[in-house]
Design a protein that fits this description.
Blueprint lengths: L13 E7 L2 E7 L2 E5 L5 E7 L3 H9 L1 E6 L6 H8 L14 E4 L2 E4 L4 E12 L3 E13 L7 H6 L2 H15 L9 E3 L5 E2 L24 E3 L1
Antiparallel strand pairs: 1-2, 1-5, 3-4, 4-9, 5-8, 6-7, 8-9, 10-11, 10-12
Helix pairs in contact: 2-4
This protein binds fe (iii) ion (FE).
The site of fe (iii) ion (FE) has 8 residues, from loops.
Length: about 210
């Protein structure tokens, strides 16, 4: 059997929000799918037993899911995916609001609040069967896990996490520079200010002076 065949299954990326012992907890998940749509929408989450999040869901039977978009700040993925909630207050590092007592991420593509109805233990994971009890639409397009792996975003998440570890605080959001002629948004690794004076918009050729800081 070529186990790599299973890498070709598509997933999204989500930030799960929950509570443990009254404190906010959460992590990045990919194994999350809709299972039925009537009489109420239902979803299935497959969660690693060793994670604190798994314990949290079992404690309260509820969690939120924030669907990450293609424009997600890579630090958000690093914050929720590269460290354990047992040693870090992850939600304190990111802009968020609440659905009742549960945290949800600001600027997600959509949001769901889920209530566990059944669960089953597998070898390493728990499968939670849930009703969606509330849902909201945000903006943007959902991020596909394979694109996160292959588009360079994973490297940006790793770099953001490295910076976070060194400075002890979340990386500051870089200012956006937008071409006033065509709307192109500069997103290069070199700070915009450091680009040569004869640099031009890669889309329309407008000079650097046509860019505006946002
Ligand atoms: Fe332009």
């Amino acid at each position: 059997m070529d186990a790599k065949a299973l890498y070709k299954i598509s997933y999204g990326l989500y930030v799960l929000g929950c509570k443990i012992d009254g404190k906010d907890a959460g992590c990045v998940v990919d194994a999350f799918i809709q299972s039925t749509s009537s009489p109420v929408p239902t979803v299935i989450l497959c969660s690693i037993q060793a994670n604190q999040t798994n314990e949290a869901i079992k404690q309260t039977g509820e969690f939120t899911v924030s669907v990450l978009g293609t424009n997600v700040d890579p630090f958000v993925i690093a914050n929720f995916g590269f460290q354990s909630g047992r040693t870090a207050d992850k939600w304190a590092n990111v802009p968020h609001s609440r659905s009742g007592d549960l945290p949800v991420l600001d600027n997600a593509v959509s949001y769901m609040r889920c209530k566990v109805t059944e669960s089953k233990e597998l070898s390493t994971h728990t499968v939670f069967f849930c009703d969606v009890v509330d849902a909201w639409l945000g903006e943007g397009e959902p991020l596909i896990y394979g694109d996160y792996q292959n588009s360079g975003m994973k490297g940006k998440a790793q770099a953001a996490f490295q910076e976070f570890k060194e400075k002890g605080k979340p990386p500051e959001k870089k200012a956006k520079w937008v071409c006033s002629v065509c709307g192109y948004v500069y997103d290069g690794d070199v700070p915009f200010e450091d680009l040569p004076d004869d640099w031009t918009c890669p889309l329309c050729g407008a000079p650097k002076s046509e860019f505006e800081k946002q």
